[in-house]
Design brief:
Elements: H1 10-14, H2 16-37, H3 39-44, H4 46-61, H5 64-69, H6 75-86, E1 90-95, E2 131-138, H7 141-148, E3 169-173, H8 187-200, E4 221-227, H9 238-262, H10 269-273, E5 276-281, H11 283-311, H12 335-344, E6 353-357, H13 369-373, H14 382-391, H15 403-420, H16 423-428, H17 434-441, E7 451-456, H18 462-471, E8 487-492, H19 499-506, H20 514-523
Parallel strand pairs: 3-4, 3-5, 5-6, 6-7, 7-8
Antiparallel strand pairs: 1-2, 2-4
Helix pairs in contact: 2-4, 8-20, 9-11, 11-12
Protein name: Alpha beta hydrolase fold protein
Region (Disordered): 146-176
Keywords: Hydrolase, Membrane, Transmembrane, Transmembrane helix
Length: 525
């Protein structure tokens, strides 16, 4: 069982006997209503119309406990089934979340030696367990065609390590409100399509390998799927700490591979980071933003420490809202990232890109107009968001999980401080506004080269995502991205929450949908 702590009562089990027929009846009525109201749009993709309404009524009708109990396959089970069905090479490695900095044995020689603070004690939480990282090799088109000519019954070759042949890696952080595992029908095929698009990119190999023969096939892309521990048994920031540890593990493993290829004791951490793309949907998008925020904080702290050292002063602390204040606030940093940035000098050690599909970026109260306007379309609801928030132990106003809440609080405190002339107090509230989020992708302290954010025009999170993208300083929210192209914002017409994932699950190909824009973004990296 995925959630052994959930034990349904006899009454809850018996309820399925009438709830399932009720869901089907509601779906039929809603589909008919939708076709009558919007015949052209509804009949353009009838499978989507039926599937979204079925999903919506299932989510709205079943209780939170019943939905958790319905999770019978873990993320690991889903990955193994997905790879077996597609004959893909797959392996799994442990991701230690350890204050001592212990890494995967293959990467130990390349790992930074200083103490790494990402154990849960620094997050004011219970001890965080280690996670599992599933590594799936997505072959290039030429390699895939060659493999298809072989016997389908033959098992795939053992997968090469991440970064083999200077190939790139996607770290996929799945959604599900931090409470549900990933699935092999929608999320994993979606992530695999993104990896295939990246593999088909003309720059699938690292830019540093451009001197190699143009006739050589592109290196395979590694799809790294993090199996993090789920709520309610494991509250946030367990999932964020495990995500940061997974990124650290990938960087170290790729450093080890690069070092072996070059005959040295270890590769370049910056070169490894520049071949990694973050990908997340929904709550996974929240993790993507939490990771880049942590890296941005680490970069800022490292720069402040360097400046203070050069000037003979003391390094400044981080934003108080990162950990809700307290003595551990300064420890809430990915110190390994700051060390790496410090050792590479300016211009090095930045992730290739970060992609957040319909990210959950703001906690309650859920009062935006889109929560009311799109309630009739979306399968996600205010009630379910509150249930996820409570189950995961999310903290409102804390920057690593409630990005919008922290930004709003910082803005209010800044305005109040300006009125009262208390600038020092304003600085202590944290800078979670436009300057911080724009700095994630711009300036010397940036931690990622490009970002893609998507949202469906018919999802309840629409207003929150639009507001959050505004914090990044984009020139427009009508698609296409900002003035400098650093942030691409795509709005999927008539799409509900995680619309591209839903489309993949249902086999829908919509030329006007956000899925195509996402794939084009990956092809352009």
């Amino acid at each position: 069982m995925v959630h052994p702590e959930i034990h349904l009562t006899t009454r809850e089990k018996v309820q399925f006997l009438w709830l399932i027929p009720l869901i089907l009846c509601k779906t039929v009525l809603t589909v008919i209503s939708t076709v009558l109201a919007e015949p052209r749009a509804a009949l353009k993709h009838p499978v989507r119309t039926i599937g979204v309404n079925l999903l919506r009524h299932a989510v709205l009708t079943l209780s939170f406990r019943q939905k958790l109990a319905a999770d019978v396959a873990s993320t690991g089970d889903a990955v193994r089934a997905f790879c077996a069905a597609r004959n893909l090479a797959h392996s799994a490695v442990a991701v230690p979340v350890d204050a001592g900095g212990h890494l995967h044995p293959a990467a130990a020689a390349a790992a930074p030696r200083r103490r790494l603070h990402d154990r849960a004690s620094t997050f004011h939480a219970a001890q965080i367990p280690d996670a599992t990282l599933h590594l799936i090799t997505i072959p290039s088109a030429s390699s895939a065609s060659s493999a298809s000519s072989a016997s389908a019954s033959s098992p795939p070759s053992p997968p090469p390590p991440p970064g083999h042949g200077r190939g790139r890696t996607i770290l996929y952080l799945h959604g599900g409100g931090f409470a549900h595992p990933t699935n092999a029908r929608g999320q994993l095929p979606f992530a695999a399509r993104c990896a295939e698009a990246l593999c088909s990119s003309s720059s699938s190999s690292s830019p540093s390998s451009s001197s190699s023969s143009s006739s050589s096939p592109p290196a395979p892309v590694t799809l790294a799927v993090l199996e993090y521990h789920l709520a309610p048994a494991h509250a946030q920031p367990t999932q964020l700490a495990q995500s940061l540890a997974a990124l650290r593990t990938l960087v170290a493993m790729m450093m080890a591979v690069d070092g072996d290829g070059g005959g040295g004791s270890g590769g370049d951490a910056a070169a490894a980071a520049e071949r990694i793309v973050l990908l997340g949907d929904s709550a996974g998008g929240n993790l993507v933003m939490g990771v880049v925020a942590a890296l941005r904080e680490a970069s800022s702290a490292s720069a402040s420490a360097s400046a203070a050292s050069a000037g003979g002063g003391a390094a400044g602390g981080g934003t108080a809202s990162w950990g809700g204040g307290g003595a551990a606030a300064d420890e809430l940093r990915a110190e390994w990232w700051g060390d790496m940035r410090g050792s590479t000098g300016s211009g090095g050690g930045r992730l290739a890109a970060a992609v957040a599909v319909c990210p959950w970026v703001g906690l309650g109260p859920y009062e935006g107009e889109s929560y009311e306007r799109n309630a009739r379309w979306d399968f996600l609801s205010k009630a379910e968001l509150e249930e996820f928030e409570e189950a995961a132990g999310m903290r409102r106003g804390v920057g690593w999980g409630d990005m919008l809440g922290a930004a709003r609080a910082a803005k209010a405190a800044r305005e109040e401080g300006e009125c009262e002339g208390e600038e020092e107090d304003v600085e202590e509230t944290g800078g979670w506004g436009e300057e911080f989020w724009s700095g994630v992708v711009r300036g010397e302290g940036r931690v990622v080269e490009r970002m893609l954010v998507t949202v469906g025009t018919r999802e309840v999170l629409y207003d929150d995502v639009v507001e959050f993208v505004g914090l990044m300083g984009t020139g427009t929210v009508e698609g296409g991205g900002g003035d400098d192209g650093k942030v691409v914002f795509v709005k999927g017409p008539r799409e509900v929450h995680v619309g591209p994932v839903v489309d993949v699950a249902m086999g829908v190909e919509d030329a006007e949908g956000s899925l195509q824009a996402i794939l084009e973004f990956f092809k352009g990296l």
